[in-house]
Automatic annotation (TrEMBL):
It holds the Pfam family APP1_cat. It comes from the Bacteria. Residues 157-312 form the Phosphatidate phosphatase APP1 catalytic domain. This is App1 family protein. InterPro entries: APP1_cat, Mg2+_PAP. Transmembrane segments: none annotated. Coiled coil: none annotated.
Length: 371
């Protein structure tokens, strides 16, 4: 009965979306279309990323002086999407091409593979994207370029980090607080936890002081916030990297998107599969099952996790966190519960993963906040 109901509701949703797009095209409400690619990653033979084709709402970048109303309008535009299904997109990199078709929500998935191996001279490489089907008459060719990170040399480890309440305080465990900060703030007004930028930069540089250790950000935030989160990372000088977010809408199988646990575990394990030559440092918080998810990853990929840092934001979870900590220890992985970023950085320095200059940068940042 539940499946029949969901199938019926989903069919109604798609019909309404199709009608909206039909009227939007004929009434001139959709004037421009964009390919919105999401940063990808790969290895020496494979590249993976997602993207979306939708109406270009012209959101643009934010400024520190933007009003709360302007922030709200931009956030509304991010969620009031006009997705375009059934359109073909061609991806091309070093002579290898793939044509994919957008799904019911306008998303597409690209998996480029070169059995002979990519010719690489940089960690970040550009994949060319072209929209082959444009429903707008006499429109210019829609193109985009998507940066993908390929760790082809000099990478000591990768870092996978949560975002909400790990990098930035959001009140993810308090729904009203989270909605308020999301809809009325912007990338400049939202501030990360103290010294996160300096610590992540130190991990990115590693022990050899080369910006080579890749970062991956896995969050339960919706894809609608992709440009917002990307701008946030750039504004606060946090190492760029692929963001693995999720779709929060009604689907054929469920009324809402899957659980935080299911989504995050799937994304982390996909990263482990593609980046099979890397070991990882995992960073999260105690508010949304990150420790439990990382424990499962350790079980599924023995020997691949170097360390787990968990920002301890909820004292009520103390007993549960200590139990998980013990389980990880039995599997040969240390989990450290941290109250501030400096604790994690000092541990990473002791283990030889970052340079002492990283600690100095963190202390300088703390002094600024203490003044």
């Amino acid at each position: 009965m539940k499946k029949i109901l969901l199938s019926s509701l989903y069919a109604v949703k798609r019909k309404l979306s199709a009608v909206k797009v039909w009227f939007g095209l004929r009434l001139g409400l959709i004037k421009t279309i964009q390919i919105l690619p999401y940063k990808g990653f790969g290895n020496t033979h494979e590249i993976y990323f997602l993207g979306r084709v939708q109406r270009d709402r012209g959101i643009g970048f934010s400024t520190i002086s933007d009003s709360r109303w302007r922030n709200f309008v931009k956030m509304y535009k991010r969620f009031a999407t006009w997705e375009l299904p059934g359109l073909r997109v061609k991806a091309k990199f070093q002579g290898v091409e793939q044509i994919v078709t957008t799904d019911d929500e306008g998303y597409f998935e690209v998996r480029l593979r070169n059995e002979d191996g990519w010719q690489l001279a940089n960690y970040w490489n550009q994949v060319e994207l072209v929209l082959l089907d444009n429903p707008l008459r006499d429109a210019e060719l829609v193109k985009a370029h998507n940066p993908v990170f390929i760790p082809y040399k000099d990478c000591d480890f990768g870092v996978i980090s949560d975002i909400d309440d790990t990098i930035v305080p959001t009140g993810a465990t308090r729904v009203f607080e989270m909605l308020k900060t999301t809809f009325f703030g912007n990338a400049h007004t939202r501030l990360p936890f103290e010294a996160v930028s300096e610590f992540y930069q130190a991990l990115h540089r590693g022990s050899d002081d080369i910006d080579s250790n890749p970062f991956f950000y896995v969050s339960s935030s919706p894809w609608n916030l992709y440009d917002f989160l990307t701008e946030f990372l750039e504004t606060h000088q946090i190492p760029k990297g692929p963001l693995m977010l999720r779709d929060l809408g009604l689907s054929r199988e469920q009324l809402f998107a899957g659980s935080h646990w299911e989504h995050k575990l799937l994304q982390v394990e996909m990263i482990f599969e593609i980046e099979s030559n890397l070991s990882f440092i995992l960073i999260g918080d105690s508010g949304q099952h990150d420790a439990e998810i990382y424990l499962q990853v350790i079980k599924d990929y023995p020997g691949r996790v170097k360390m787990v840092y968990i920002r301890h934001i909820n004292a009520r979870d103390e007993e549960k966190m200590l139990k998980i900590q013990t389980q990880m220890k039995h599997l040969g992985v240390e989990m450290m519960l941290i109250k501030d970023t400096l604790e994690a950085a000092q541990d990473a320095l002791q283990k030889g993963w970052i340079q002492e200059s990283g600690i100095k940068d963190i202390l300088i940042e703390q002094q600024k906040h203490g003044e």
